Queue: 3 jobs
Job 1
Amino acid sequence: MHYRFECFELHPTARLLRHDQLELEVPRKVFDCLAYLIEHRERAIARDELIDAVWKRSNVSDNQLAHAIAAARRLLGDDGEGQRLIRTVPGFGYHWVGNVDTVAAADIVASPTPLDSDPVDAIQTAPAKATAAPLANPADLPAQARRPTAATATAKANRLRPWLLTSVLLACAAVAVWWSTRADQQAAPTAPSAASIPSQTWVLPGALPDAAESWARIGLMALIAEGLNRQGAAVIPIEKALTRVGDVAADVDLAELARELDAALVVAPRAYQVKQTWVVALAAYGKDSGKIRVDASAGDLLAAGRLAVQRLNQRLRHSGPGLDGSIDETFELISQAIRARDYEGALLQLSRLSDADRHRPEAGLLEVDLELERGQNSAAREKAELWLQRLNASTQPVAYARVLLRKATAMRQLGEADWPGLVDQAIALLQGANSPRDLATAMQLRGIAAYFADKKADAMRDLVRAREMFDEQGDEFRAAKVTGTMGALAVRDGRLGEASLQLAQSAKVLEAYGAIDSLRSNIEWTAYQQVLLLRWADVLRTTDRLRDLLQKAGKTSSYEQSSYLRIRTFALMHLGRLNEAQTLLDEQERAVKRDIQENDLRDRGVDELADIAGQRAWLQLIQHHWERSAATAAAGFSMLQGVATNSVRSVNMQNLLSIVVRAQAGAEPWSESTPMPVLDARQIEILKNATNIDGRVAYAYWNARHGNLEGAEADYRAAFALANATPQNVTYMMVVVEPYTEFLLARKRVRDASQLLNQLLVNSPDLPEQSYEVALLQLRVRMAEGNSSGAKVAARRVLALAGERPLPVDLLPTLEAARNADPSPRH
């Protein structure tokens, strides 16, 4: 039997723990502790009993047990404070308190039995005589064929499904760095002080009659929220409030709204002018206080707001330090306006600072933050450089380091390569200063830089330490963002079980804080994880949520829009909804071109347009527009030739060339009548030295068509070895198995093709029912085997999954026969 709880499944006999169907890596003692507590959940377990059951010896310290329990809780998204699943029984031991469903063995669907040997190692070469000789073991192949070269290792993260999948991943990587680095340098949103959202205070946006003071809609909201929060109210962060109640009518029934929100108090600010005097009126409704109304007047709008919230606190009998009108308070209000995307309000408040206050480092940092949030990276870089000239690194190390980090962020967005050096400078300054939060932010940035420099051990060390430092400061918001970044990097590496848990843990905190931007990035990575698992319907649902977040965020950059569109377009292509995909591609191209016009994107604009070209070429490939696809991909390649090459662009060039080669092959890539692929000498050299799977596979086809079958086989096998390193990620496998199987079928090596297909289906037997490409491949293999019943089943699946795709010409008779036999599928 096995056990189900929340999104987890624990299989004691198989020693498996899954989260959302993804297998997690669990240390042995941690697994044993979990299994024992769940199996004996009807009672509390004494420490000595648990030690004896797990360690089988008595000389185990309580500290060792505590570490194992803490690790188990982290694995399940639990902790020592909440104790949602594992409760500590003081002075005794531990008790599993979560709800558990027991599933009998008969209810478990067995996985296919793995083959005794690696199917690739068992593939037979085409015989010279009637008998087949075994293919050489991978260890006997040339080194180039056995494993990637040193250059390949640096690009191992780019092992993806042909072109489009790589482009989605690289785009998500840029987004992860963008949101991980830029928002962390501002103050974090005010933490919700209660464990859950109900029974908290909600402040609505301010209502003003004059559009000239529209900035105060958010500014007044932030001021009232801060005044209530300082005197002990559990106030919902304004970012979260804006997503939920940002568009409520000015005359809303506060009592009804409070019941809908399950709020302790709802406050609606309103401001208007009487001659030269500002009046701020606060209407409130509370569960305990009922209706309350206070107002205050002053010559300055914010001064009137401070007086009004002071009177509201008095009516509510709150105590504590109130608002004081200090410059630090003003800076905090500007920061909140930036986070709420009220850029005009933030700019107006910055312009109203006195000359003396405008020359304070805090003002300079806010100016740079504003430019970064608006996507004006060149302006942010220039302002950061100006402030670095004004500041003294020896006497103002913290301020200087903060500006360095912002300059590094701007440079990263502009595609400049030297930004990690600025992070190192910042860390050197902060290590001698008493500013642990800034040091943690810098370490987070250094960890990201190390990851993309293929120093993954260093990256994880920095990221883990950054998260620990944020936790030590009680900053769960930033700690959650680091967890989200680690989840994103786990997706890149194909560690999908670990990624699923980290992204879920991060999203829970980010949503509580109303951090829309960070949450959006987190959800994008969740969508990409679903892409890697070929869960297309899930991808569409997740991108629906992304679209809702973008709409709630209000002002979004065209880059943010195109990032969402890219993922959704990809899912639509694989579902065969090609017309919708075409529409989104056009929308994406318009967004990118608008972004290029509005912002100084430099070379990143070229990257974006090349990305669009790759997606469009792939869509044309699916539509069998062979010549158009080859021309579009070649145009994208030419774009990248015009800018400086870096590791990401190098991979993209390989991917674009792989589309050119595939498109030139046309409808019958292995027919003798199909013309040879045409590339120039430089393009051939790029594919020959390819560092990713797509390039290796394209060069294998090139070799095969030019008569170098041994070289082609070596390249296919080397690509398969890369893909097989992450068996959880079926998409990696599909990149190689599809063209490699077609190569084997073209050589009449049917048995080898069958074994290769089986290797793909061993871990994912449902793939033919989910993926058109897999169903089509299965149909070709079953036909080659002479398995008519299997071919009929596969043909029905192809028809059901085809959508708007044109069907392969060589398979039309078989597919028409299947359609006539079972008229339910429609194409």
Job 2
Amino acid sequence: MIREIFFITAISALLLPHNGWAIDVPYSAENPASGQTYDAPSKSGAEQSDQSANEIRMAAEQGDAEAQFELGGMYYAGQGVPKDDAKAVRWFRQAAEQGIADAQYNLGVMYYGGQGGPKDYAKAVRWFRQAAEQGHAEAQNNLGVMYNTGREVPKDDAKAVRWFRQAAEQGHAEAQNNLGAMYYTGREVPKDDAKAVHWYRQAAERGHAEAQFFLGFMYYKGREVPKDYAKAVRWFRQAAEQGHAEAQNTLGAMYAKGLGVPKDYAKAVRWFRQAAEQGHAEAQSNLGAMYYGGRGVPKDDAEAVHWYRQAAEQGIAGAQFNLGAMYAEGQGVPKDDAEAVRWYRQAAERGHAEAQFFLGFMYDKGRGVPKDGAKAVRWFRQAAEQGHAVAQFSLGLAYAEGQGVPKDDAEAVHWYRQAAEQGIAGAQFNLGFMYDKGRGGPKDGAKAVRWFRQAAEQGYADAQFNLGLMYYAGRWVPKDDAEAVHWYRQAAEQGVAGAQFNLGAMYAEGQGVPKDDAEAARWYRQAAEQGIAEAQFKLGMAYAEGQGVPMDDAKAVRWFQQAAEQGIAGAQFGLGMAYALGLGVPKDDAEAVRWLRQAAEQGVAGAQFNLGAMYFLGQGVPKDDAEAARWYRQAAEQGIAEAQFKLGGMYSLGQGVPKDDAEAVRWYRQAAEQGHAWAQFGLGGMYATGRGVPKDDAEAVRWYRQAAEQGHAEAQFFLGLAYAEGQGVPKDDAEAVRWYRQAAEQGHAEAQFFLGLAYAEGQGVPKDYIEAYAWINISGEQGDEHAKEARSLIEKKLSPSDLIKAQERSNEYFRRYVPTPVRD
């Protein structure tokens, strides 16, 4: 989580002297201005000093400008006279009014600093200007600074440039540095890196540390000089050795990265430390990173926290983020999610994308703050809009799942795509899923496969698994079992339980690989040991059937039990069946019911239905139609069509519930509207007989047709009868034959008989006794007594050779169309 960033300071857009606004101090005997020196008296001791001061005072009082300037300097420095800033100002003023440039400059400094009287920037500017107009370089530079910053004069970069240039052309290093910065930023001069380099170089060669730093930066960036890390290091070093903190930090970064110098973490630490101890925030952050990583120093999380904190308290977003991470992980400090959130927030509010993401994560998980999906999304968005790939992915997830924002698949796709294009495998996988399912836009198989493949090739196991599924099913790609096996195997070897299960199934079926029950059992076992109930069930089945492992009913039950104890309804059902059939355990219907009940009480609709069936049949529990109806109802209310149908039947018969045809119709209808063919047939029957609804042959036909079109043989037969008799539809023998045939080909004995009669009588089809015999005979073989009688009559109408043909055709139909199970 910790990001180790080495800061290389960028050029500031502000033009300030190296020491900030500490404009050059006024002239004194210790600090002469413009090369002027104070000639000390020739005598020694107090007598010489007093004599010199008296002589200078006398000259000054007689109007000698140089003496006035010197006397001002003596009062400023307290040499030969008591220190007295007010008197210094008085004598500097007298000299300045006579045109002494150094006095004008020093007077400007005194007014600027409020020495010897109140601060007065307007007077400071006035006196700087008078000195500057006489060519005083320090005054020209300071006047340039005041115009540049708009301090008590209207901000005017053009005038700033003019004054910087005049001072720079006199060799004033500070002004040369400032003029270089003006060209670098293009303020009131055309942006010109070449001229910036020219002026930075002149200042740097005069030992100006800031200019040395910026000249190094120009070499580092290759701005109007060839990129040259070695030269960059040379200039950074000169500035660093003068104590320039930014240069020290940057030189440390060059050693840490091995740019222009051999990589040397110890030297990096040395320079980071020098800058850090001056309070340089980025260096403090970098030094924290070195301690965190154990680079150039022994790893020391507590020391890392110390330096991160110092940088963080100065507002360095990266350090605030790293400090938050240390609290989140309990590294170097006690784990404290609230404190982590506090530091993440400070960094996030400064626009630090990683911190914004992690702050969103903390809100998403409710760590250190109350769980709040909306706030999580807010911070994910800020990070995402800065291009933070994982935040883009997380924002996509929020939209896809409707967490913290309204569900919006199109917006989810938008953010998944941005993250996917940055190589986030999870986003590539989810984007593939959205295209596969047509969520957030039209289905697009080619794009789905493309994104799944990109994620899979990065080793994203779920994408490998899905790609295997696509090749297996031939969805969006040509069906290719070998390719499916290839991707299942990659995912399975990474421990994806579903892929292990499917790979086992491929070996079990011999799809894409040679059939190998032992290998199937091996992969089923791996999935089963991860707790996959279906794999546990399959492995149990392998032991039960001796496929790939020695037959062992006890082991079969062991795996069934493990799956069932996870509360998986299907596994509980499997175990219930083992008890019901005595497979690996003594037959025990009560135990079977126990497992079905566990699943049913969890709300599993299929288990509720099967438990209802156990009560209905009196297996493992006393037969109890009311209890059967109760469980059928629970399943029916969850929309299980079979349970709705069964419940409708119980109302129709008055089993376990009061007989109620209207209620029967209600439940039949619910199942029928879900496409349940038997319920559609039953509902048709209710309309045909007028039970629970007004009699309505057309409505009966409508429901028979819906069931018939699903292949429901009984409904097909009744629909044929309706057309034959003209009930609910116009009479139409050909249509009757069409529906008889569909039912007959499913093995429906009555339909076979009626189809045979149609051929015998030429109703809806040309008369054909051979075809009539073939159909009526197989109907009779299924026990239809009317068919047996009709067969005898038709035999009399056939010649011996036609009878042989009819019997052969009947045998063929018997093989094709008998037996077909018919619902009890």
Job 3
Amino acid sequence: MAEGPLMAGGVATSEVPALRLRGARARRLAPGLMLMSGFAALGYQIVWTQQCALWLGHESAAVLAVVAAFFGGLAAGAWAVGARIERSSRPARWYAMCEIGIAVWAMLLALSLAPISDGLVELIGARPSPLRHWMVAFCGTFVLLLPATAAMGATLPAMARMLAAAQERRSPIAMLYACNTAGAVLGVLATAFWFVPAFGLTLTAAVCATLNLMCAGIALTVFPSVVSDSEARRGDGDRGLSVLAVTGLLGIGYEVLVVRALSQVAENTVYTFANLLAVYLVGSALGAAAYSRWLPRLPSDARIARQVRDRLLQLLAFACVLGVVALAGAQSAKPWLLVRLGGGMTGALAAEVLLAASAFLVPTIAMGALFSHLSTTARAAGVGFGRALGANTAGAALAPVLFGVVLVPWVGLKFSLMVVIGGYLMMVSVLAWRRPLQWLAVGAVAVVSVSVSSLTAVDLPQGGRLVRLIEGVMASVSIVEDAAGVTSLHINNRQQEGSSATVFADARQGLLPILFNPQASHVLFLGLGTGVTASVAAEDARREVVAVELLPEVISASAQFRQATGTAVAGARVHMLAADARRFVRATDTRYDVIISDNFHPARSGSGALYTVEHFAAVKSRLASGGLFCQWLPLHQLDLDTLRSIVRSFLQVYPRGAAMLATNSLETPVIGLIARGDDQRIDVEGVRAHLASASQPDPLQYGIADDLALFGSLVGGPDALRRFAGDAPLNTDDRPVVIYQAPRMTYEPDSLPRDRLAAFLDEMDIEAGEVLDVAASEWTARLAAYWRARKNFIEVGRAVRPSPDVGRMLAQVKAPLLEVLRLSPDFRPAYDPLLKMGYALSNVDAAAAAELFDELNRVQPARLEAAQARSRVTAAHRASLPVSERP
């Protein structure tokens, strides 16, 4: 029997030339595969983070659990599967199976996440303990993503094994890591700036899955199906794994802390976080590429390898010190950058990138080189790359909890960063402590610790002061007082809606929706802010009021505003819950008569999920019989195109929805979308009875003198809203257009709030019968006149130039406001300012003031204030004359 071909290392000698040819092609294609694989991996991370937030919420436990679960899955795959791959003679098959597994599981998740998330929301519950929330969030996410994340963790070790034979002494790890990370950069930017805004989350996941399948096909076609057993490494050593784990912990810890610090300076949009992540990854890729280029053939001498490690650790410590200095100056550097970069959205995004680069770029370059060095030296010592990568990502999985949950609230941002830098310096060898460079690094840390006062940014107005600062897990919350004694609430250095000076507007946002529902005994507020809105609603002790607020620190800060605004007693009756509003609505079983959603800034990360069709539908399912929902919208922070999408999404769930104005403010106009859950019209007679019996709080105190003032706040009916929305894209969970569209107004405002309000009102009209359950009558005619008067009133206001001189003000507004009153004598917002200006005018020109009061009395004789003012002014003028001159 003839013998077969001789075998060399398990491979037929006749096949060696073919394998070498395929190996050369493989070396050329491997970087491209790693690029595609990295692109898909970070695309998935962005998609899964947004999808998981829909059921987990945006509480600290949820956000950090997703990050930890993602890294935990990578660690599990690299450690368990990667080690097995490194002992296999068929790594290409393993690699292809991993890529196929990622694609299949990603598409299964995309198609089944909705029903799965319903079960997980129910498991978490509406009011879970912190431990229960964390456990379900982490374990649920970990298990849900594990098949894909574990496969991701194994792809890099598989590729390293596939290329090991062709690299001789040159380690492929650094090159593969650099290419994989470069692909991740492209994946982050393409996903955030193009794929998700244009195609939505599911189609983006499909694009990533397609890339995975392409990688699998190329690997099976191009790479040798079998590699020599002599190239297989047992990889069961553990030398250097502890250092890899700690560097993973510190590296992601540094990322968590820098992102937190920059969130007080950057705009915190979806683009902000994409840019921050991209800069972090760019630095890592550059570091790995530099290591692959300049340190490809390390001597086997362990002493030299240790010296290189020490130098990289010291370089990384110095780089992080420079990063802290950059963060300390970021607040003052941003305005300078915006001026130099020319403003606009492009300039604003470029400024954020440069701020991120100042804190991230040099440290992450050192991190990329350090990981490549540690992995290469570990592999030379018999430690498989899978175990090395697993140890590194396992450390990374712990970082969000250790630094975000424990250290920042405990010691603050600055000292948490000092812990990171100190951690790098403590990992050098004993010999390094005998050299001046190590002590120079220690000295630099000491100098920065003393010289940098704080990394918590708080902008103070001239003459103002910081009243209180609360450093929380997810944000810094501060209370700032200006020179006039007005206090305002700031989250991550950004002023929120409401202050001690805006009680009138804040109260109306709570009172108007409640007055529209005569059975408003159970009220839910989504968002707390200063707490004034919910506290005013709770002034009626018979009413049960629940307020859900994402940040516990805001709940704590609200006590100060309730005290300052005189709503402390009522505020004590509000049941305040620290929870994600969206998740709470899905999880609770309680039905509410009125649900009022705060005017969340649509551009801020996470807020757009509160304006989706799915969330509006969830709210509808939590309304009691005859219940009413009101969604407030900050037009001063919204462009009209984004508003159209939100309006269309609202009408998709509430087809008989209407629009109203919280106040007549031109600088901070707030629109309310309002509708009943049963799609019925508002019961006018019931509302009138409810308004007549309302005493706590007194509606008149907040400008609601009668039913005309209440119903007069409406500005648009369902037909007008439908025309306004047109064919604007729906804001859905799968295609969250708001969070990608709204930032344009934040970065590059193209109009003034008053102009957007006027443009909106120009497209609005309303008939009483559309929204109100009332027949045509003399009252509906008066209401229609009131609506026309209000529109004219706002147009008058747009043309006014404020002046402290009452004469100049009257010259601008007297005639047009009197004309508004002739159109609708019931329109008090035009009557009251003229009355006040008449009193002010009486101090300098009593005759002119008396004439103004007479005109007011002729236009609206039913109101007695003008006639009474006329009498008082006349009496005062008579008393000021000499006795001989008195009539």
